[in-house]
Amino acid sequence: MSDAYDVPGGKLKLKGVTKKKGASLVKKKTPTKEEVPAPKIVLPEDPRTESQKRYDEIQSKREMDQIKKKASKSHKQKVEEFNKYLGSLSEHHDIPKVGPG
Questions:
Q1: CA-closest candidate to residue 48, choices 37, 59, 38
Q2: Out of 28, 33, 41, 49, which residue is the most buried by the measure of CB atoms under 10 Å away?
């Protein structure tokens, strides 16, 4: 009685492919640093137009100015300015009392 899975063992072989004898016996010479050329680094061109470059430059400058402005004040100064601002608002902005009494 034969099994339903009667499969021969071993490696798969491709038809028409032959292994060259002696190819594994030849050692390859490893190149030295002087023989290997240094890889060339090619930077891609900037696809932006001149006006886009200027716009980005101005935006980064404004951002840096804002960061410097915010970093120049201490927390105490910021709280004092905020309280002064709230004090200058009209009664319309006051929080109405809710509840009895």
A1: 59
A2: 49
pLDDT along the chain (101 residues), means of 10: 66 74 61 74 88 96 93 90 89 77 60
Q: Closest Cα partner for 67 from 77, 59, 57, 79? A: 59
Q: Where are the domains of the chain?
A: 47-88
User: What is the token pair recorded at 87?
Assistant: 């004090």
pTM higher than 0.70: no
Q: What is the CA radius of gyration of the chain?
A: 39
Going by the DSSP 8-state scheme, the letter that residue 93 receives in this structure is G
Distance CA 99, CA 67 (A): 44
Largest CA distance in the chain: 104
Sign of CA dihedral 69, 72, 73, 74: positive
What is the DSSP-derived secondary structure letter of residue 95?
P
